[in-house]
TrEMBL record:
Subcellular location: Cell membrane
Alphabetically ordered keywords of this record: ATP-binding, Cell membrane, Kinase, Membrane, Nucleotide-binding, Phosphoprotein, Transferase, Transmembrane, Transmembrane helix, Two-component regulatory system
GO MF: ATP binding; phosphoprotein phosphatase activity; phosphorelay sensor kinase activity
Protein name (Swiss-Prot/TrEMBL): histidine kinase
Domain of life: Bacteria
GO biological process assignments: cellular response to phosphate starvation
Histidine kinase domain span: 41-258
Residues of the PAC domain: 1-37
Predominant subcellular localization, coarse grouping: membrane
UniProt entry tagged with the keyword Transcription regulation: no
This protein's GO CC annotations: plasma membrane
Membrane found in the keyword field: yes
C-alpha cells in the first residue's frame, strides 16, 4: 500500500484533519518484480552461450587450432552456440513485440489445414532425421479469421516441441476439429510427457522441466510463452494433457471470427 498524507486546513488556517490517499500498489510491485526477474533470466540465458563461444575461441587461438580434429569439434560447438544465441534473441524480440497489446492483429481469412501443411514443410527434415512419423490432419479445409503468420508460429512451436521431446521412432500427430464457432488444433506426441506438478508453470517464460534436455534440443524456454500470447491475442485458449512416459497433447481452441 502506498499512502500520501496531506493536512486539511480550514479557512483560518486551522488544522481540520488529515487527508489520506491510499493506493494499492501490489500490482505495480508485482509487475516490477516480474520485469526484473525477466531481465535477470535473459542475462543468464545470454551469458551461457556467449561464455561458451568465448572459451572455445580462446582455446583455439591458444594453439588448439593446430589440431585439425579439435578445430572441427570446437567450431561445431561455436556454431551451435551462436545459433542458440540467434534463436534466443529472436524469441525475446518476438515476445516483447507480441506483448505490446497496442499492435492490432492483421486479420485475414485462412485455411488452417494449409497452415499446418506449411509447418510440416518446415519440420520435414528434422522429422526424417529423428525417424519420427508426422501424421497430418485429414481435413483439407477449415476456414477461420486470424493473422496467418501468428497461427503458423503457434503450430510450429507446438510441433517443434513435440519433435524435440519425442524419442526416435515416435509419432507426432496434428489433428483439426471444426466446431460451430471455433477450431481446435491438437498436437499430440508419444514423447517423454510432463509431470503433473510442472503443468501449471509450463507457459511461463524460461520455465523448463529439464534444463539440460531443453538446451540440448536447442530450446530457449520461450516457445510456450510465445504460444500462449499468440493464442490470447486471438481470444483463444490452450489446454494441455500429458502423462509421463506416454506422451503429451496440446490443444489450441481459436474462435473462427475475431
Ligand atoms: P523449450 O525451448 O525449453 O522447449 P518451451 O517454452 O517451448 O521451451 O517449453 C517449456 C518446457 O515444457 C520445455 O522445456 C519442456 O520441458 C516442456 N515441454 C514442452 N513441450 C513438451 C512436449 N511436447 N513434451 C514434453 N515436454 C514438453
Amino acid at each position: 500500500l502506498d499512502a500520501h498524507l496531506a493536512p486539511y486546513v480550514g479557512e483560518n488556517g486551522e488544522l481540520m484533519g488529515i487527508v489520506a490517499v491510499l493506493h494499492d500498489i501490489t500490482d505495480i510491485r508485482r509487475l516490477e518484480k516480474m520485469r526484473s526477474e525477466f531481465i535477470a533470466n535473459v542475462s543468464h540465458e545470454l551469458k551461457t552461450p556467449i561464455t561458451s563461444v568465448k572459451g572455445f575461441t580462446e582455446t583455439l587461438l591458444d594453439g588448439a587450432m593446430e589440431d585439425k580434429e579439435a578445430l572441427t569439434h570446437f567450431l561445431g560447438i561455436i556454431h551451435k552456440e551462436s545459433d542458440r544465441l540467434h534463436r534466443l534473441i529472436n524469441d525475446i524480440l518476438h515476445l516483447s513485440k507480441i506483448e505490446q497489446h497496442s499492435i492490432p492483429l492483421d486479420i485475414e481469412p485462412l485455411n488452417v489445414a494449409e497452415v499446418v501443411d506449411r509447418v510440416a514443410d518446415t519440420v520435414r527434415k528434422e522429422v526424417a532425421k529423428k525417424e519420427l512419423e508426422l501424421i497430418l490432419p485429414e481435413n483439407r479445409e477449415i476456414w477461420m479469421e486470424g493473422q496467418k503468420d501468428r497461427i503458423q508460429q503457434i503450430i510450429l512451436n507446438l510441433v517443434s516441441n513435440a519433435i524435440a521431446y519425442t524419442p526416435a521412432g515416435g509419432e507426432v500427430a496434428v489433428t483439426l476439429a471444426e466446431r460451430e464457432d471455433s477450431v481446435a488444433i491438437t498436437v499430440k506426441d508419444t514423447g517423454i510427457g510432463i509431470a503433473k506438478k510442472d503443468l501449471p508453470r509450463l507457459f511461463e517464460r524460461f520455465y523448463r522441466v529439464d534444463k539440460g534436455r531443453s538446451r540440448n534440443s536447442g530450446g530457449t524456454g520461450l516457445g510456450l510463452a510465445i504460444v500462449k500470447h499468440l493464442v490470447e491475442s486471438h481470444h483463444g485458449k490452450i489446454e494441455v494433457e500429458s502423462e509421463e512416459g506416454i506422451g503429451t497433447a496440446f490443444t489450441v481452441i481459436l474462435p473462427k471470427k475475431q
